[in-house]
Amino acid sequence: MDVFTRQDFDNFLKGYQSQLNEVAFWVDTDAIEGTVPAELEGTLLRNGPGLFEIGGKSISQPLDGDGQVSTFAIKNGRVFFRNRFVRTEALMREQEAQKMLYRGAFSVGNPAGGLFFNPFDFSVKGIANTSVLAFGGKLLALYERDLPYEMDAELKTIGHTDLGCSIDTPKFFGAHHRVELDAHGHERLVGFNASEEANSALVNFFEYDEDFRLLQKAMHRLPGASFGFFHDFLVTENYYVLLENPISLDLAKLLTRYMFGRACLAECLEYRDDRRTRVHLLRRPGRQGAEHAIAETEPFFSFHHVNAFEAPGGKVVIDTCAMKSGIKFDVGFEGASEAYYQQPAGRATLTRLVMDVATQQVTRHELAPDRAAELPSPLAPPRVGRAHTHQYLAASRVPGALKWGPQQGVMKVSVSPDWGVSAPAAPDGPRRAFWFPADRAAFAQEPVFVPRREAAREDDGWVLTLVYSATEHRTSLVILDAQSMKQVAAVHLPLHLPYGIHGSWSNTFFGPSKAFRPTSYCIKHGVSANGRPKYAK
Question: Is residue 535 part of a domain?
């Protein structure tokens, strides 16, 4: 296999089919290949788009699908599975109306119908489809342009939450967060939001204790960064870390195409390779260091970051997934083909940035230059903001700049924290290990590292990933040994889950505490005589 073919692309697209059934059941032992480790206890939480049509009309971009949360609760070698749509206000209204009512950030079209709508209305549908977090007794479905939706342990939607009035302006809570350990060994959740102003970006950071009490809130304005596309962030001991992408608003496209429903909002954002990518270090409240240090480097685009830490000599190290040839925001279902995977745009490679805070200089080193990699696993709390050696990412099966294809497996990269900092960035420094499913028509998703409770080493634990098989049209939970990258178990579901976006691990078991009868509900059911859907809460 040396190129991603049309057949491969068709197989990939099969994973973008709506999952209308909401189910809850113990996975039969006959459906488990290998042995689920007895020490592995807790829940893998996953979120992603689960519905790709509204009132019989397909949406044009999968990222705008309504959020569906899934849980794999693991205990005593058994797995309990559950999935449910997040009952957002938008989903409930559209199911009642059986037609599209809201704009999507990535979908083209005017939901209200007609030829004209206000091009300066930048509101988009709240779909709660990007990530899911269990922390401080709350289970939250996240989408970066909305407040979190709280759910209970059975994934029933409770409703919007402003987290104890801590989120005010704007009413957003980002899809990405970091859970670190404080100086006393307690977990601390750090979240953020970002919004556009006339000539700057407004960014808020929030820090919560283990009971979800707000400890710190910090607001920063970043001049000239209105469209920096801050999807993710990082923390170190003393800093919040943001990467400002070289993006500008294409006003002509906004006025001539978006206003007539011929372009989506994201499509009006233009990657500029004549601008520089900027690194922002923003001092955390009560910490040490520069109040706001800025450095520039050659242009690249980054959605997702691995980790950052402070190194000797006044340096900050940032590992991120960098797209050197930028990104295109106009890729949807219509007109898509395998040709998208035969161009450099959108191809991210694992990259290390080393910033000297005093001189504001940045050096860049690629840790895995020939392999497309994205969706890095969240690090375990003891390593967040601190020096790390190991990282796990979803990776392309085929190496090479123009042959990469979508993510199909998991790549482990191991490299010394001082590589490229105080030690030379030798090409043979980073060590890589891979796992790919035997089936070529199978596609792995974001890996999630789960440390062993009494871990002796940083990579002592397991890596969990969901794998969609187009051949069998079903999804499996694959458990890998994090040190050897060998498969330990595969938990095969009798149904498929559309490709998810982000997930997390909780040490809490979100399964039933007593005997449980399997349940199933299809959202197309419950239609009354007059044809109006009664969408169950």
Answer: no
Predicted local distance difference test score (pLDDT) of residue 528? 32
When comparing pLDDT for 122 and 393, which is higher? 393
Instruction: Tell whether residue 220 is among the known ligand binding residues.
Output: no
- Give me the number of domains the chain comprises: 1
Q: Can you tell me whether residue 233 is helix, strand or coil? A: coil
Question: Does residue 532 sit within a domain?
Answer: no
Is there a binding annotation on residue 304? yes
Asked if residue 502 belongs to a known ligand binding site, the reply is: yes
Q: What is the mean pLDDT of residues 400-406?
A: 69
What is the rounded distance in angstroms from the CA atom of residue 272 to the CA atom of residue 277? Answer: 10
Task: Report CA dihedral (84, 89, 92, 95) to the nearest 10 degrees.
Answer: -110
Q: Do residues 367 and 430 lie in contact, with contact meaning Cβ atoms separated by under 8 Å?
A: yes
How much is the pTM? 0.93
- What number of residues does the chain have? 537
Is 105:63 a contact under the CB 8 Å cutoff?
yes
Does any domain span residue 51? yes
Structural domain boundaries, residue 367: 6-522
pLDDT exceeds 50 at position 520:
yes
Phi, psi of 260 (to 5 degrees): -110, 10
Asked, for residue 536, whether it belongs to a domain, the answer is no
User: Is 365 part of any known ligand binding site?
Assistant: no
